[in-house]
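Bench notes, afternoon.
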Amino acid sequence: MASNKNYAYYLRGSEIALIEEDLSTDSKWKSPIEAITDGLEIEYAYSPRYRINDIEDKSTALTGYDESSGLLKFTGSGLSTDAAITHIVIKGSARWNGLHKINTLNANYWIVETKYNGAVVTESGITAYTDIDALSDESSEIDLPEYLSKALVYYVKARMAEDRMDIEAKEYFLREFRAILEKHENSKAWSGRKVIPGAHSIR
């Protein structure tokens, strides 16, 4: 009889990590401790706070990072000082991948609003993308499929109904919200689908 294996996951930015409960010793959660011979399927959807418009365009190689008055400073050479750059997205770093808001632009370094108080680090393979759209205020465009946009409308209506203490309307809009989410998730299922005619249909 196969023994039970308990798995869980945690999120760190745009990454997902799988962990397993070690039942043989102290029941602590660890990196998977046994081989998974029968396979394990994970479906994970992540909605970021930014969108890279063109991954082939406006990418800059960085050489490492440093600290500047308690803020993170990315170093490089020939960096853009275009005032239109308000955010950057870092890829390829062991620590700083993700979205960062610009504080200072210089041809030899970029200071971002991310807090950092540490040593100078040289790191190869860091790429910064500047052609991005970041969510910054109410006018920002949320990158959602058209079908899920309808769900978002129902969710906002539910919260507005809750604010005015209309519990019946709140529950109605939340039901519609969950129904759309469920249909969207079911559409991802990899299986055959059959249409069965009703008992009184023409055959």
